[in-house]
Input
Amino acid sequence: MLHTQLIQRRPPYQFLKNRIIRIVPTYWGITLFVILIYLFFPSLFRGMVITPDLVILSFLFFSSIFADKYPILYVGWTLEWEMLFYVIFAFGLFFSSWRFQSGFVVLAISVVCILFGEFIAIEFLLGMLVAYIYRKFNLGNHKGVVIFLFGCGLLLLSISSKVSTLQLDRVLIWGLPSFFIVWGLLYCPQIKIRLFKYLGDASYSIYLVHVLTIPAFYKFSSRLMYGWNGDILALFCVASSVIFGCVIYSLMEKPATIKIKALWGH
Output
């Protein structure tokens, strides 16, 4: 978000409008789909109870942060943190100076972390730091590869049983390695392949639906693919999730985004 704003500064309203158009319609649409499936086939949802207050909290992005509940679409808990960051970042845009804006965002996120006792929001600050360093310093491809490999090494350490016993916060276990991985890759040459670009465009839909396609696939495979190798099943599961996510992107997310932009005067 900081990188795009540094390229083309947008006022707070425009910034929030762009984020809402990008995030909300697809998330609400899939959430509504889950609610309808629950109403007609409640037996498919083990241990899940959808109540009116949970519906409201899920649509408002309030459930996990303010009510300590997972939203109806489980992976939406990450989007709730993301939307909170967008609101904080938008308020920071009222300052004319980037120094004051960044200072406001850092202070606000620090307060949020202290109030909720959850430090995942620090990862947004790491992302802003990457944007600042990338625009300030041109380190070149070779140094970028070294930084990337260093980040990969840190990430591999997270699978060590010794690390898991340290009770470290996720910011240190996964956030910091991700910081170096993203930072290093920014300096690497970009490979232009249409398929990969399409998958990148569809990544949001893939992310949202995989929490539905994975259990659906294994329910299906337990009956028709019983006895298959677990690794082979996992590959088929990943492929089915990607394909279904691409279908949602092409048939729902992309057309809805174009339509909403046209109606909202984007």
User: Anything to note?
Assistant: The longest helix spans residues 230-263. DSSP finds 13 helices and no strands in the chain. The chain has three domains: 1-136, 138-184, 190-266.
